[in-house]
Amino acid sequence: xxxxxxxxxxxxxxxxxxxxxxxxxxxxxxxxxxxxxxxxxxxxxxxxxxxxxxxxxxxxxxxxxxxxxxxxxxxxxxxxxxxxxxxxxxxxxxxxxxxxxxxxxxxxxxxxxxxxxxxxxxxxxxxxxxxxxxxxxxxxxxxxxxxxxxxxxxxxxxxxxxxxxxxxxxxxxxxxxxxxxxxxxxxxxxxxxxxxxxxxxxxxxxxxxxxxxxxxxxxxxxxxxxxxxxxxxxxxxxxxxxxxxxxxxxxxxxxxxxxxxxxxxxxxxxxxxxxx
Length: 276
Known about the structure:
CATH architecture of the largest domain: Roll
Largest sheet: 5 strands, antiparallel
Number of helices: 5
């Protein structure tokens, strides 16, 4: 499947920015299940300063905001060929050991709600790790209804379970926290998903991956109750959303404020195209 992606993020600041940096994880890389045909990042109100691969193997672009601007636009766009690998990404590569992905983060701490979920999973747990992870996916899907407007990027897995609703990012964090509680390495994935009913979208997508002996990393999209297929494009991974966030930065105003009031708009289109 050939997917054309056009992702535009616009920041509008209440005051002119005197200094600012942004770290972009918006560049997919070729790997199992996907091949990047072409990709580019265009900037207005900022300039690229450096690029590197981080500890998770993500391609990172460091961006400096042009002093005095009140608006910054980041456009990531390109074409990616994908195949259906039934969610299997394969062997572990990169600079970090597998045990790194069993450690808690602020967003994936285990509390009473996660512990209760693990107890509920006990009746479905088998010696087959893959089967256990599929059972976990179904359990989270039942426990957390997909509803927008109730959570944000700082909502923890424990808080999501307590609320009983959330979005794809929240489903992924609950899955990751639960898998780690079972001693299974797990990580967050940010990327894109071709929708069946629309081209225009409000945001990118997020899901989880867990490590299964004999298969390697395997993806689980709890929000859609599937393992990622040819409709998915992986962009960045990390222990949680924070480490895989598409855009993260810091800005200063003339008053020395470390954070400026800002509004964020996202325009995203993903469609299948026919190779020339």
